[in-house]
Amino acid sequence: MTAAVLYQIQAIPEKRLFEVKCTILNPDPGGQKVLLPVWIPGSYLVRDFARFIMRLQAYCQEKSIYSQMLDKNTWRFAPTAGPLEIHYQVHAYDLTPRGAHVDNTHAFFNGSRVFLQICGQENAALEVEIQAPSDPKYHHWRVATSLETAGATPLGFGLYKSSHYEDLIDHPVEIGEFEVFDFEAAGVPHALVMSGKYKADLPRLKADLANISEHHIHFFDTPAPMKKYVFLVQVLNEGYGGLEHCFSSVIHCKRDHLPKLGEVKVSEGYRTLLGLLSHEYFHAWNVKRIKPSAFLPYDLTKENYTRQLWIFEGITSYYDELALVRAKRISKESYLELLGQLCTRVYSIPGRFRQTLEQASFEAWTKFYKPDENSLNATISYYTKGALVALALDLLLRHKTNNQCSLDKVMQIVWQRFGLTNEGLPENVFEKIAEEVSGCSLEEFFNMALRSVEEFPIATYLELAGIILNAFPATSVEEMGGKKPSELINKPLLEVKLKTGTSDVHLASIYEGGAAEAAGLAPGDIIVAVNGFKVERSRFESVIASFAVGEEVLLYVFRRDELMTFKVTLRGGWLQTYSLMISPTLTEQQQALLNSWLQLT
Length: 601
Ligand SMILES: [Zn+2]
What we know:
Elements: E1 5-12, E2 17-24, E3 33-35, E4 53-60, E5 63-65, E6 67-71, E7 74-77, E8 84-91, E9 101-103, E10 106-109, H1 111-114, E11 117-118, E12 126-131, E13 142-145, E14 148-149, E15 158-162, H2 165-168, E16 173-176, E17 178-185, E18 188-195, H3 202-220, E19 229-236, E20 241-244, E21 248-254, H4 268-282, H5 309-326, H6 332-347, H7 357-362, H8 375-378, H9 384-400, H10 407-419, H11 429-438, H12 443-451, H13 458-464, E22 467-473, E23 496-498, E24 505-510, H14 515-519, E25 526-530, E26 533-534, H15 537-545, E27 552-559, E28 562-569, E29 576-582, H16 588-598
Parallel strand pairs: 1-12, 18-19, 19-21
Antiparallel strand pairs: 1-2, 2-8, 3-7, 3-11, 4-5, 4-8, 6-7, 9-10, 10-16, 12-15, 13-16, 14-15, 17-18, 20-21, 22-29, 23-24, 24-25, 25-26, 25-27, 27-28
Helix pairs in contact: 3-4, 4-5, 5-6, 5-9, 6-9, 9-13, 9-16, 10-11
């Protein structure tokens, strides 16, 4: 053992757990303290990972050592005269990019779930021995990770290493059967690791991903900050999401979203997948290397507050899809459709009049990550509104400077000053840099966009690029927008959101100020009949749409186990969807802006 700390980890598929042994060469002579993070960077919720730890026992030279928990995630061991060995199990049955999961199909872990942090040795060199499950039927499994090898052969079990704890937990590990597709982007070796069952055009995915990766590297400038990069993609029947790391990302991909063999067009599902991969990869710069000061270093024992998540998630959400059109993976019409969907998502949420973008960021831990039946009325997403503000800022800077300056330029300067230097980005400095780089006064813009709940006037900014924002009455609260509807009929729509995954008309949320609220309906209510006739979820919106706007209907509702009736006067046109189109008559300035923004040639 050459490092200060050695972790040995082995999956036990039948028990859905990892066995871990942690050996500390020189434990604290006063009694070693260890802790497990309560959250994982990139996902801003206290998750208390220590609750998954079982059977923790410690030894020194085979003698049992007394340990005591000091709080929910910290342990202290009695002083020892030699190396301290801590044995424990980790229950691992959370199949998410931020989780740890073991079954007979694979084993996957994030370090923050399984590796104890050794207090006082946070910056010591570490080694990890990843062992094959003991049952021979798993001996063909391989290991995919961006961890550096310390003797393990490529994709093999064995010894890996890390320079310090925060780095160690930034390299998730996938163990199992998978395919690997290697490619280079701007000279940097990348690997696309595909786990799970699928039948798809992977060479196409690999080529598109290489193109997008290359685009992002050139966006921030070469050389890329990573020596290698690994996309760990887990293919599932359902699921969407990812988590970013410095040298890798974990992606949950819905099987239907993979490009089909023989298909040439970019399906909506495939566009979603490319956007997700692009998003997590952009994070390798924006949030993994350019970080808010509040994350330097991360405090893994509690919430880390920042008002800047709109920069790290909103701006990333803006560039993930913009990169697809700039890298010629999708057409400009397809990109405008995505922007129409973005507008629809932001402008359908009453919470936009209740929470500012800075508040949304600051309260991420307790609001965005703990959604409830009232979130719709009380909160706004720093992803979607953040992306809309990024779009507006980009167009505004281009317009004011004759395309000499842009959000691209601002991000590149932020990268040079706060990413390459590993300095944290202090609160409000981003705004000063945007003003400095562009020479424009942006105080009014930022005050409105970040610190007010005024309606954000995106149409005004789109117009600078000659883009027209069209609004249409929605015929379902689930409508995505982005396209001009096939029929423009103003049908009544009950001002409620329905719970998914049930055949009941189960009310999940009630829109503030709407007719359903005025009638007295509440979240949790189950509508069983309309005007005396039974109704099911699959037909509910069409039943409501069969009435006229302004008509009064009688709803029969179970609230808990009590049958009640409510009279609702139906409204239409209260919810809108948006689509974007390029004006048929562009001024020279609009055309120039459009060309430089979308990099049309
Ligand atoms: Zn993100």
